[in-house]
Amino acid sequence: MEDIKVLTDFQYDALKEVGNIGIGNATTSLSQMVNKKVDISLPDLKLVPIIKVPIIVKNAAPVVGIIQQLKGDSSGFLVLLLSKDSAKLLIKLVLGQTENNTTFNEMEQSVLKELGNIMNGTYISSLSNFLGIALGLLPPNQVYDMSDAIINQIVGMMSMDVEDVLFMRTEFTVNSEKIDGRILIFTDSDSLTRILGAINKLLGK
C-alpha cells in the first residue's frame, strides 16, 4: 500500500501564507476588473492522492475548468474549477450581462480565461517569489465538461507520474454573493518533492 503524503504543519503554514499573498494580489486585480470590492479567502488547503481527486471535485453538472501548464522548475498543470452558476455570475460582474444558456460564447470564455489567469498566476508568482524557484504559467485554456472528465484530461496530458495533487478551495465574496472555486496543482513526484523541499529549507532542514 502506498504511503499517503501529508503536509507538515510548517509546509501547510507556508503554502497558506503564499496563498494569502497571492489572494491579496488577486483581490486587487479582480476588484479593478469588476469595478466592485472583491474578498477572497482560502478556507481549505491539502494534499490529495490523485485517485481521490475526482471524488472531492465531483459535481452533478458540468463545470468550467481553466487549465494552465506550469513552466520553469516544475512540470505539471494548474486548474481552476467553477460551477456554471459561479462562472456566469463572475462573467456578469465583468460584462454587466451574460447569456442565459448552458454554454459560453467567445467573449464569456475570454473573461473566464482572464479570471483564471489572475487567480492561478498570482498564486504561482507568489510561490515562485516565496521559495526562490522559477515557476510560471503558459496561457490558459477553458473547458466546460464534467469534473471527472476534466481531471482525466489533465492526467492524460501529463506524460510524467503524478501521485498527489495540491488542492485549494477558494471563496469569493462580491456584493454579498459567495462564489466557490477550486484550484488544483498537478505536478510529477519530483516537482512536488522539489517544492516541498524548498519550503523545508526555509526552516533550515
From TrEMBL:
Residues 12-45 form the CheC-like protein domain. Residues 65-141 form the Chemotaxis phosphatase CheX-like domain. CDD domains: CheC_ClassI. It holds the Pfam family CheC. SUPFAM superfamilies: CheC-like (SSF103039). One of its GO terms (biological process) is chemotaxis. One of its GO terms (molecular function) is hydrolase activity. Keywords: Chemotaxis, Hydrolase. This is CheC, inhibitor of MCP methylation. It comes from Candidatus Methanoperedens nitratireducens. The lineage of its organism: Archaea, Methanobacteriati, Methanobacteriota, Stenosarchaea group, Methanomicrobia.
